[in-house]
Amino acid sequence: MPIFDKTTARVLATILLFLAAGAFVWGARRTLVVFLFAIFFAYMLQPLVSLVARTRFGSGHRGRSILIVYLVLLGTLAVVLSFAGPKLVAEARSLAEKLPQLLEGLTSGQIIHSIGARRGWSWNSQVRLERFLESHSAIVLHWGQDIGRRAAEVAANAIWILIIPILSVFFLKDADKFAESLIETTNRRTQRQFLRGILEDLNVMLASYIRAQLALATISLVAYTIVLTVLRVPYSLVLGVVGGFAEFVPVVGPLVAAICILGVAFLTNYPHLFLVAIFLGGWRVVQDYVISPRIMGHSIELHPLAALFAVLAGAEIGGVLGVYLSVPAIATLRILYRRWRHYEELQRGTNVQEMRTG
User: Fold this and answer.
1) CB atoms within 10 A of CB 62
2) Smaller CB count within 10 Å for the chain: N or C?
3) How confident is the model over 96-138, as pLDDT tens digits?
């Protein structure tokens, strides 16, 4: 009896193929992530491009419509930055300069006595909190250094911010051609139906999810900026931008934004910290139970527990990037499983029909 039969050889070949694909993905992960974000950016702009293409300016010409959308976006960005840019840069520079000093005062306990005296804390309470912070000073400093390191990594990869919109042009212009080319690689009709169904489901899911995330982030950015400015929280513009961008990261992002806002308000000895905490808690309830269900709808169709598992697993595997990609990834696996079951049913039906006709 031969050691390797045809079935064993096929299984081994499939395993080796998956291992090779996994090694390729791991080796080219940075480039693949850039292309993935280019696809996400293309999904954001797709409705605008389609809208312009239906007007007399686009006249059904996709390339011209893409150019018009990019020019409008650049003009809008220039106008926004001309008004808010100088203040945002000034606040960010001031916060970056003062943050190390504030963290040093926190770990040494000096800031505790300053805040405690202003807020009327008892001396025993100040001493207990000072000792607690002294015992955890290494953790606080590690967090600060980690935030600085991640900020430096983002700044070092800032060139990708320019590359992503350029790559998105190709996806906006030739997405249908890419999909048809992929479908044409299969031979059987059922395989084409299977692949076409996966691509259609992925297209609907990603489009709905990314546009919903963009809408939620924009709403959060505006809400954070307006309320924090009205409450006269220091660095309100920077904190509002941080809160808006953090909304892109499911589950973890809003929590990190709330910690950053409360942390900066506490370190700068803001007098109405309780009001800020009430706003953050109330906004989270409104965002999660009123706004998000209406905007997000059923684009993902995931149970909250599954989404939470995806976020935690993504954080373990890929850090912040893994958290952001975790929910679409597990939704994609769900689509693949559902479509595969449908494909197997079609295959069984085809085989039964062939046996009857044969």
Assistant:
1) 17
2) N
3) 777 766 666 555 556 666 666 666 666 666 666 666 666 655 6
The values of phi and psi at residue 57, to 5°, are -70, -40
Task: Give me the amino acid identity at 171.
Answer: F
Identity of residue 167 = L
| Residue 146 within a domain | no
Q: How far apart are CA 270 and CA 233, in angstroms?
A: 7
State the number of CA atoms in the 13 A half-sphere of 222 facing the CB.
6
Which 3 state secondary structure label does DSSP give 271?
coil
Q: What's the predicted TM-score (pTM) here?
A: 0.70
User: Closest Cα partner for 112 from 141, 92, 87, 132?
Assistant: 132
Q: Is residue 175 part of a domain?
A: no
* Cβ burial, residue 5 (10 Å; 0-12/13-18/19+): exposed
**How far is Cα 50 from Cα 32, in angstroms, rounded to an integer?**
26
Alpha helices in the chain (DSSP H): 6-27, 29-53, 62-108, 110-119, 123-135, 137-156, 159-183, 189-230, 236-246, 252-267, 273-286, 292-296, 304-357
Report the domain count for the chain: 1
Query: Which residue type, as a one-letter code, is found at position 225?
Result: T
For residues 64 and 71, what is the distance between their CA atoms, to the nearest angstrom? 11
**pLDDT for the residue numbered 45:** 85
Check whether 298 has a pLDDT greater than 80: no
Tell me the three state secondary structure of residue 93.
helix
Q: How far apart are CA 266 and CA 256, in angstroms?
A: 15
- Tell me which residue range forms the domain holding 259: 187-349
**Residue 55 DSSP one-character state:** S
Residue 246 lies in a domain: yes
Those residues with Cβ within 8 angstroms of residue 200's Cβ, 6 or more apart along the chain or in another chain: none
Confirm whether 162 is domain-assigned: no
Name the DSSP letter for residue 297.
T
Structure tokens at 170: 């190709």
Angle at 340 between CA 334 and CA 342, to 5 degrees: 105
What dihedral do alpha carbons 260, 159, 94, 108 form, nearest 10°? 50
Quick check: 288 pLDDT over 90? no
Longest Cα–Cα distance in the chain: 92
